[in-house]
């Protein structure tokens, strides 16, 4: 529902991130840290990582507990998306795997992790310099945690995505092995061959990927098409696709209930007010830029699989020159792994705002981040949100269109980026010492991933059966004004 325009005011003071990073800061040399990693390997040999420890939990009850805080009317669509395939189910239930991982043998070497590093959570987006980048692109579950949690989730996703595109078992195992060995190689190169600044300045520009062939293999054919099409995906393209003129001639978002609906006037005012708080968390130049815009329209707009059902909004901003900017606001839940499943680890933190957590971890893991990335907290409801630009040259690889070679190369690139991201944590040097370049690590992690993939299939079967016999109750929250 559009109301009279009100410009975003320049914030009076900047906010400071309070997410505690002390667990990844350490005053030792790279060699000393690598030696620490070798000591960990003596205590937790690769063979211990290979054993999957079965975990007993009620998957349906767990999903219902998670969904208690989600929007009730969106849950049937969420369930339909998750039921499409075991891979889709896996994408929508990261809290299950996080719970199971908390019961497994782990190295407990802390780095900033994505928390949900499955193979579908890498994609294209624009740098502030308008270069097309490819990197990790989902950070809702990001936190400080053990490096192997990300690698294990990547490997299990390779199995499930490989099944989805009908790859044979040998091809899938080869892809997993190549992914682990790439991770090891890059982690070793990061700390043996690169300085701290070189690790920091590493480029994920797509053009560099297109020019540099991975061990002589061609990059997926889809990359060139995406590179050519991505620049057209900007705010003005979003405006053309998602908006229309209302009866008063004002530009407003199109509705597509229940996925896309206009917010109430009360929520419109509330979000507009909170956007001014958000401006305290972006750089001064971005805050000044945003001061030239006013809020024209806001809709609740649900996206994805795992985050479908959370409170997500699109905000249409109009500048003093008539141009537009579309921001996406996403609810920043406490990492959903902590809802209904007690997986508190030695790295867990109490107190930091979850929007701050997501923004902090994203800026560490990505080589360059959206300049509009920021956050705010609603003190009235206790909910946290983070803000980013919507669809700014953003695109994902279509895994369903990949052949075995494309899939293998794509998985290697994802493993490369995962290693590069984790190497931004100084404690990544401990990981480097632990993983080395021994092939036994790949065999151990593959054995674990193959065993765990069977658990995912069992969970998926229980989930789809609960939908069929209607024992999975739709018990989410009402989205009325609080």
Automatic annotation (TrEMBL):
Name of the molecule in the record: DUF2252 domain-containing protein
InterPro entries: DUF2252
One Pfam short name: DUF2252
Protein source organism: Schleiferilactobacillus perolens DSM 12744
Superkingdom of the source species: Bacteria
């Amino acid at each position: 529902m559009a109301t009279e325009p009100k410009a975003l005011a320049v914030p009076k003071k900047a906010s400071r991130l309070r997410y505690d990073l002390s667990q990844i800061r350490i005053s030792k040399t790279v060699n000393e840290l690598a030696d620490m990693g070798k000591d960990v390997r003596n205590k937790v040999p690769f063979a211990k990582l290979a054993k999957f420890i079965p975990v007993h939990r009620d998957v349906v009850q767990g999903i219902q507990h998670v969904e208690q805080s989600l929007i009730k009317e969106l849950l049937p669509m969420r369930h339909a998306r998750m039921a499409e395939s075991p891979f889709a189910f896996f994408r929508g239930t990261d809290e299950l795997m996080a719970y199971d991982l908390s019961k497994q043998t782990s190295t407990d070497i802390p780095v900033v992790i994505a928390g949900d590093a499955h193979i579908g959570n890498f994609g294209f987006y624009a740098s502030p310099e308008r270069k097309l980048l490819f990197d990790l692109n989902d950070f809702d579950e990001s936190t400080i945690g053990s490096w192997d949690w990300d690698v294990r989730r990547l490997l299990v996703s390779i199995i499930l995505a490989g099944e989805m595109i009908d790859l044979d078992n040998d091809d899938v195992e080869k892809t997993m092995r190549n992914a682990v060995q790439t991770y090891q190689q890059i982690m070793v190169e990061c700390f043996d061959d690169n300085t701290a600044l070189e690790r920091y300045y590493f480029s994920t520009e797509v053009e560099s990927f297109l020019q540099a062939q991975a061990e002589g293999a061609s990059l997926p054919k889809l990359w060139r098409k995406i590179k050519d099409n991505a620049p057209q995906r900007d705010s003005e393209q979003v405006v053309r696709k998602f908006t229309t003129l209302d009866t008063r001639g004002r530009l407003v978002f199109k509705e597509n209930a229940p996925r896309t609906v206009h917010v109430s006037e009360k929520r419109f005012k509330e979000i507009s007010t909170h956007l001014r708080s958000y401006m305290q968390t972006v750089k001064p130049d971005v805050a000044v830029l945003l001061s030239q815009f006013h809020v024209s329209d806001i809709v609740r707009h649900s996206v994805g699989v795992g985050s479908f059902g959370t409170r997500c909004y699109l905000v249409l901003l109009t500048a003093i020159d008539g141009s537009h900017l579309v921001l996406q606001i996403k609810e920043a839940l406490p990492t959903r792994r902590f809802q209904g499943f007690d997986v508190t680890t030695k790295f867990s933190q109490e107190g930091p705002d979850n929007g701050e957590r997501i923004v902090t971890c994203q800026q560490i893991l990505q080589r360059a981040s959206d300049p509009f990335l920021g956050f705010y907290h609603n003190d009235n409801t206790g909910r946290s949100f983070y803000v980013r630009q919507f669809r700014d040259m953003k695109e994902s690889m279509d895994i369903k269109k990949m052949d075995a070679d494309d899939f293998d190369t794509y998985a290697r690139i994802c493993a490369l980026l995962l290693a590069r991201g984790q190497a931004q944590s100084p404690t990544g040097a401990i990981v480097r010492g632990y993983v080395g370049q021994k092939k036994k690590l790949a065999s151990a992690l593959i054995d674990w991933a193959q065993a765990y993939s069977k658990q995912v299939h069992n969970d998926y079967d229980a989930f789809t059966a609960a939908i069929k016999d209607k024992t999975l109750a739709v018990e989410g929250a009402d989205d009325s004004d609080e």
